């Protein structure tokens, strides 16, 4: 049944892809250069009119050419765009042709041609158009009328960035957005936070989405990002918007002639921190030095009469040659395990255009990313297809919109997982052999060489997203400003996981030192299928009108419903007799296991918005959402989330006009917002009593199925409630060349749900229910944005920008904090700002035995010697125990981030630079990175441990044979392993040249031929680099300092071509 379902899913996906491809190929028909007229006696007359050529040049007020201005003959499809010199040639037809000339940021000009064959056209800047339009929840707003807190990023700024996912592209570009890398693993997704909150809501073209679907969007399809940060912006999305919203608007068609665009790139990536191994003889010397210091015997060297180590004759050469004995060698692990570079390539093609009433956009993209493993067992492939078509029936004021998109994301990893492999890489050294004397891989199952063997198996995932939307908007005739709209969206998610292991260990063939094959067990296969579908319906009414050129009123009402269904099915078989058949039916039925589950959710909401402004001077906006969720019991399912915001454009005041006449002052605006948003981040149906199925009864020599009563439930489940305040000031100076923005925000969250087990006697055999607690949490911070744009002479333009975000947080009340901790100012959590963790405090390393004898130490610590870690007795009781663990350090997730942008352009040359960094931030080295065991000497930097006479830099305690040799003294979570992980990165550099400015300037059919080179993470400055790790190494913000697939730096070469 599972294979049959997957087959039908596969056929459906193939049919959708082929259908999209047919539409994609046939769409250029919409760009036919002809006009259709209606004859009273014949309704099907296609009239190809006689034409003549019109040429000219388009400039601004200063006479500078405008590149890419659109020249369109009205009521026809005759159109062109100006070239690099502002020149154009277009066919015009008819006796009295009229053209429209338009350019972004300039007033559109209408010109009657008459008999003229050439024109010089000057366009004037439009101050209204300079007021940028941003996408908000259920609508759009100009920046001048914006009263809430929203950051915007243009999609075109991210197209040529060599990032492996679209989320990483936002890092350093928008205030209030905190992003933490998840390492360089193909397909890995970073953590993202808005102003320090949890995972935000992702919205694509007005439809809530998942982080996974959002991350695989094609950058070339994105028109803009909007980051909705305060309740005034996010409250219209109700319970899912408590952590803010990342909103994407994709590209739509235009009323211009069809353009074809291609973007292609090829990239090479490598670890930001090179993987370097110590020479084998260095490892041998360090191991012997540690052995002698710990009263052991050296293996390779000898000890002279003075206690000094020396190399006996011939031994050093034997070690270097790998011939010292049968189990040591001189292994070049880099050449065996890793490529120098991992390849990445992307190809995107799009069609864009339309006519007066019909617009279309379509694109397709293929992306592939390889891994750094020599066997190419790790990779990520993506396919994106998207189409948008809309048509406007101008006689009745009706616009229909259709959108279809398909995304496929495929990943493959070694069966043992990347984290497991990298813990073993961390223990490698060049003295260890990879092969035995017979040339077979050896060293056990922890040898990374056999873990990345393609014959070991694989973990594959194939995830597909299919999204279809149909919407309409009716502008009611004869009622100015009134419109009605509706939308239906269907989203299908399918994911298939296949975990195949050619043997139970999940490694390639491995032999013992005596060349006996290691028994690795038989093959196994684990398959899982996940499918969900979502249906969203939306009906809305809008009214927008300006009265007497002074009073603008806007109103929006929306009804929204959402239905979600999810199914999961899994199957497992073990003990395969052969590893040739990689299918479920190839395994014995006696080992078969299966599992499955299903769930459903629903939401319903009413959204309202009222907005008023007077001459764009005073602006007031009120929003609400009345939100219903089936996660709560009756009586608690509906929540009301209101917001109010106001804005004052001071520069619109009459008394400010004298200042506006000066060149140094341009604009000033104040904003304030208050709102309440909610979170329903709880499990499904926690208010219902359930029975759990298990295998808890043993009889007849086996465990039998049972039913038992589930956890106790409560009818007191309700929304998390978050109140927000936002204060902001926006200003512009020197004729808008300098812009500045400052915002202060404050969040207070209550109604936390928890299991207060300490407040009640726990009933036998069951857990206490989730109930509302008195916990309260506060978070506050500020954002700063500065930008300068100017030009020197005629062709040289430049820009400089700074964005900075900071927040901190504390528990106002925390229901589960123990009274003993509340009384301890060093351990208390309540009313304390963010910190890293409760840690032991290190006094550095013991330098002599007297210091050891005179100091308190952990009860379990034994056989301490100089070079071991010393600890502070915080409470002075003479013993180091858990009571000496106190708050220490800065949080893993940075609370201060900043980005610096630099840009310049000269004729066809463009240079863009992004620097990104963090303030105070700590990471704790995990055990695999704490180089104090002899089996951890191998990677560069591990030689910096303590031993008598070491006058160099010391990063690690003395070496021991294992972590428990001194009672685990050096492996305790303490400030000794707490590292300053703040950093500054050269996050992105892009240099490009458009050949349209030189070699191709006379080719009118080409509007862009840009060649570029860009790079990511090219330079990193951080105190942790001396430990030979990257400041963002780890799988997420909770595992910083752990070993894992390394963060990558990328060099990309690409081309942008537009016809």
Automatic annotation (TrEMBL):
- Classify the protein's membrane topology as the record does: Multi-pass membrane protein
Q: What is this protein called?
A: Putative TonB-dependent outer membrane receptor protein
Domain TonB-dependent receptor plug positions: 144-245
Q: Which UniProt keywords apply?
A: Cell outer membrane, Membrane, Receptor, Transmembrane, Transmembrane beta strand, Transport
Q: Looking at the record's lineage, which domain of life comes first?
A: Bacteria
Q: Which Pfam families match?
A: CarbopepD_reg_2 (PF13715), Plug (PF07715)
- Claim: Membrane is one of the keywords in the record: yes
The subcellular localization recorded is: Cell outer membrane
Q: Which InterPro entries match?
A: CarboxyPept-like_regulatory (IPR008969), Plug_dom (IPR012910), Plug_dom_sf (IPR037066), TonB-dep_OMP_SusC/RagA (IPR023996), TonB-dep_OMP_SusC/RagA_CS (IPR023997), TonB-dep_rcpt-like (IPR039426)
Q: Does the keyword Endoplasmic reticulum apply?
A: no
Q: Which GO terms describe its cellular component?
A: cell outer membrane
The record's comment on protein family reads: Belongs to the TonB-dependent receptor family.
Q: Which residues form a coiled coil?
A: none
Q: What is its main location?
A: membrane
**Which organism was this protein described from?**
Bacteroides caccae
């Amino acid at each position: 049944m599972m294979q049959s379902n997957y087959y039908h899913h596969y056929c459906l996906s193939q049919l959708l892809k082929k259908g999209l491809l047919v539409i994609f190929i046939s769409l250029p028909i919409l760009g036919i250069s002809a006009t259709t007229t209606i004859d009273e006696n014949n309704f099907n007359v296609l009239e190809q009119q006689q034409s003549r050529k019109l040429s000219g040049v388009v400039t601004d007020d200063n006479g500078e050419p405008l590149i890419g201005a659109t020249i369109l003959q009205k009521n026809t499809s005759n159109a062109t765009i100006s070239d690099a010199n502002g020149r154009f040639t277009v066919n015009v037809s008819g006796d009295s042709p009229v053209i429209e000339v338009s350019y972004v940021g300039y007033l559109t000009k209408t010109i009657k041609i008459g008999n003229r064959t050439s024109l010089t056209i000057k366009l004037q800047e439009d101050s209204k158009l300079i007021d940028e339009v941003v996408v908000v929840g259920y609508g759009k707003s100009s920046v001048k009328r914006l009263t809430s807190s929203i950051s915007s990023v243009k999609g075109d700024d991210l197209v040529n960035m060599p990032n492996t996912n679209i989320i990483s592209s936002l890092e350093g570009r928008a205030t209030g957005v905190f992003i933490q890398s998840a390492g360089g693993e193909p397909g890995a997704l970073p953590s993202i936070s808005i102003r320090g909150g949890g995972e935000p809501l992702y919205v694509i073209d007005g439809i809530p989405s998942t982080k996974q679907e959002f991350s695989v969007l094609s950058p070339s399809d994105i028109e803009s990002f909007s980051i909705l940060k305060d309740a005034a912006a996010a409250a219209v999305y109700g319970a899912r918007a408590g952590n803010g919203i990342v909103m994407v608007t994709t590209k739509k068609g235009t009323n211009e002639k069809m353009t074809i665009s291609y973007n292609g790139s090829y990239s090479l990536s490598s670890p930001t921190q090179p993987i370097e191994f110590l020479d084998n003889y260095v490892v041998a010397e360090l191991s012997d030095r540690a052995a002698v210091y710990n009263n052991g015997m050296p293996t390779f060297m000898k000890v002279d009469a003075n206690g000094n180590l020396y190399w006996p004759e011939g031994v050093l050469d034997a070690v270097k040659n790998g011939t010292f004995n049968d189990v040591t060698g001189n292994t070049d692990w880099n050449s065996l395990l890793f490529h120098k570079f991992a390849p990445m390539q992307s190809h995107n093609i799009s069609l864009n255009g339309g006519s007066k009433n019909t617009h279309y956009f379509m694109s397709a993209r293929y992306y592939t990313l390889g891994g750094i493993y020599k066997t190419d067992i790790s990779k990520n492939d993506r396919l994106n297809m998207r189409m948008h078509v809309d048509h406007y029936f101008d006689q009745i004021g009706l616009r229909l919109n259709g959108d279809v998109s398909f995304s496929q994301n495929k990943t493959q990893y070694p069966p043992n997982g990347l984290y497991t492999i990298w813990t073993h890489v961390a223990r490698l050294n060049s003295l260890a052999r990879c092969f035995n004397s017979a040339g077979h891989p050896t060293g056990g199952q922890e040898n990374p060489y056999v873990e990345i063997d393609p014959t070991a198996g694989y973990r594959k995932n194939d995830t597909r997203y299919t999204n279809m939307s149909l919407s309409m908007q009716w502008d009611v005739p004869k009622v100015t400003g009134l419109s009605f709209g509706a939308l239906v969206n269907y989203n299908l998610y399918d994911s298939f996981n296949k975990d195949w292991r050619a043997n139970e260990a999940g490694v390639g063939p491995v032999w013992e030192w005596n060349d006996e094959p290691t028994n690795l067990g038989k093959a196994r296969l684990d398959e899982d299928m996940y499918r969900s579908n979502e249906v969203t319906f939306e009906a809305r009414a809008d009214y927008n009108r300006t009265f007497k050129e002074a009073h603008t009123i806007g109103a929006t009402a929306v009804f929204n419903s959402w239905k979600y269904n999810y199914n999961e099915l899994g199957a497992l078989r073990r003990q395969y007799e052969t590893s040739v058949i990689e299918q479920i039916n190839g395994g014995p039925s006696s080992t078969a296991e299966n599992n499955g589950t299903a769930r459903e959710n629903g939401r319903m909401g009413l959204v309202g918005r009222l907005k008023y402004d007077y001459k764009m001077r005073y602006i007031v906006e009120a929003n609400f959402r009345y939100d219903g969720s089936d996660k709560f019991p009756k009586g608690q399912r509906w929540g009301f989330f209101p917001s109010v915001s106001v804005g004052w454009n001071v520069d619109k005041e009459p008394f400010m006009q004298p200042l506006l006449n000066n060149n140094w002052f341009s604009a000033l605006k104040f904003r304030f917002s208050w709102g309440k948003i909610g979170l329903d981040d709880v499990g499904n149906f926690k208010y219902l009593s359930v029975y759990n199925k298990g295998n808890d009864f043993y009889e007849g020599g086996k465990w039998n199925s049972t039913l038992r009563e589930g956890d106790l439930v409560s009818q007191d489940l309700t929304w998390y409630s978050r109140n927000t305040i936002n204060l902001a000031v926006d200003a512009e100076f020197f004729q808008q060349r300098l812009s500045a923005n400052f915002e202060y925000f404050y969040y207070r969250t209550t109604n936390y749900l928890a299991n207060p087990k300490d407040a009640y006697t726990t009933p036998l055999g069951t857990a206490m229910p989730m109930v509302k607690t008195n916990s309260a949490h506060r978070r506050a911070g500020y954002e700063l944005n500065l930008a300068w744009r100017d030009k020197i002479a005629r062709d040289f333009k430049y820009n400089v920008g700074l964005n900075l975000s900071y927040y901190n947080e504390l528990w106002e009340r925390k229901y589960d904090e123990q009274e003993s901790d509340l009384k301890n100012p060093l351990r208390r959590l309540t009313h304390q700002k963010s910190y890293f963790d409760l840690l032991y405090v290190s006094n550095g390393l013991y330098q002599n035995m007297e210091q050891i004898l005179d100091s308190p130490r952990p009860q379990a610590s034994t056989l301490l010697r100089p070079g071991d870690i010393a600890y502070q007795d915080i409470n002075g009781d003479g013993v180091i125990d858990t009571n000496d663990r106190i708050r220490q350090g800065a949080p893993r997730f940075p609370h201060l981030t900043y980005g610096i942008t630099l840009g310049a352009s000269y004729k066809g040359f463009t240079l863009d630079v992004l620097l990104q960094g963090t303030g105070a931030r700590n990471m704790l080295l995990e055990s695999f990175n704490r180089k104090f065991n002899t089996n951890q000497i191998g990677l560069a930097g591990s030689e910096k441990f303590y031993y008598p006479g070491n006058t160099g830099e010391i990063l690690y305690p003395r070496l021991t044979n294992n972590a428990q040799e001194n009672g685990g003294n050096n492996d305790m979570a303490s400030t000794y392993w707490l590292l300053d992980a703040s950093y500054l990165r050269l996050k992105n550099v892009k240099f490009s040249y458009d050949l349209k400015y030189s070699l191709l300037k006379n080719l009118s059919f080409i509007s862009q031929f840009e060649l570029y080179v860009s790079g990511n993470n090219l330079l990193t400055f951080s105190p942790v680099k001396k430990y030979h790790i990257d400041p963002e190494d780890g799988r997420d913000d909770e595992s910083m300092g752990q070993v894992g697939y390394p963060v990558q730096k990328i060099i990309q070469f690409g081309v942008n071509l537009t016809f």
